[in-house]
Design goal:
Layout (H helix, E strand, L loop, with lengths): L2 H11 L10 H10 L5 E3 L8 H9 L5 E5 L4 H9 L4 E4 L4 H15 L1
Parallel strand pairs: 1-2, 2-3
Length: 109
Amino acid sequence: MSVRDALKILLEGEGWAVNCLDSCDELEALIGQNALVAVISESSLPDCTPQEILERCSKRSLPVIFTGHDLPLQGAVDLIRQGAADFLDKPFPQSRLLDLLDRLQEQQN
């Protein structure tokens, strides 16, 4: 089972609606039509850099949570400085992600 599948099961089990995307075009289409709480992404999509993800989401004030295990500490810090809501280094406690999503949802209400 992939990390993506495990996160989908976890989040749906907690009552979150989850969309899994494979491209920037899919991201753009989804953020253009739905009220989302956040985007959770590996450091990049196959056709989209982390900066492009941040740029697309920031146009709609949509928080981005990056995850990963192969990014140096400075890379994670840079993403947060560029506007990411957080960077969760794998493996991360499930409670940390759930707490972060709850806070982001409260901020939007």
